[in-house]
Amino acid sequence: MTTYKILGVSLLIVIMSCNQNQNDTSKDVQTNSQQKMEIIKAQGVITKVSSKNFEDTYNTLVEIITNNPNLKIVAQLDHQANAASVDLELNPTRVIMFGNPKLGTPLMQNSQITGLDLPQKILIWQDDKGVVNVSYNDPGFLKLRHEINGKDDVLAIISKALDNLSKGATGV
């Protein structure tokens, strides 16, 4: 083979390799975009149906959080009681606010506006059919919302903790 043919073949291989890498990158971007869209479509909220009644679901969650040395309950809100105080009706609806500063602080150091969504909150609510639900913010959505970078390890721990808490409360 002449030198020109060798250079031509080499150039062709490089071009094909670049195109393959570009295709791989495009696939990664496309997959990442699809994941973002799935989170956005879900409005950033994860909801699980409880196998227990409202009071048992709520009390179980309070007990689990209280008995976890890494977590602290910051506040408990009873929206049903608040509605009743102004002569309005609302199905049972309560929020437990709790946190772990060792996990939340690094997120706020990365993006201070994350403090709008911290401490964590879990909503226990009963719909008109009597179905009890447990809902909370998807940490993946918080990452997108607050443009949190480089804290995937912390977000993974928080995701796992929220999943475990909600499973414990719902019995599912």
Instruction: Estimate nothing, just give the exact number of structural domains.
Output: 1
Cross-sheet strand order for the largest sheet: 1-5-4-3-2
If you compute it from the alpha carbons, what radius of gyration comes out, rounded to the nearest whole angstrom?
A: 24 Å
Instruction: Give the low-confidence spans.
Output: 1-19, 21-26
Q: Whole-number average pLDDT?
A: 85
Q: What is the general shape?
A: globular
CATH class: Alpha Beta
Number of strands: 5
Q: How many helical stretches?
A: 6
What do we call the CATH homologous superfamily?
A: TT1751-like domain
- Which CATH-level-2 architecture? 2-Layer Sandwich
Classify the helix fraction into a percent range: 55-70%
Cα(first) to Cα(last) distance is: 69 Å
SS class: alpha+beta
Strand percentage lies at 15-25%
What does this structure look like?
- This protein has 172 residues and is an alpha+beta fold.
- It has one domain (43-170): TATA-Binding Protein (2-Layer Sandwich).
- It contains six helices and five strands.
- It has a five-stranded antiparallel β-sheet with strand order 1-5-4-3-2.
How is this fold's topology laid out?
Elements: H1 3-41, E1 45-49, H2 54-66, E2 72-78, H3 79-84, E3 93-99, H4 101-110, E4 120-126, E5 132-137, H5 139-146, H6 152-170
Antiparallel strand pairs: 1-5, 2-3, 3-4, 4-5
In a few lines, what is going on in this structure?
With 172 residues, the chain is of the alpha+beta class.
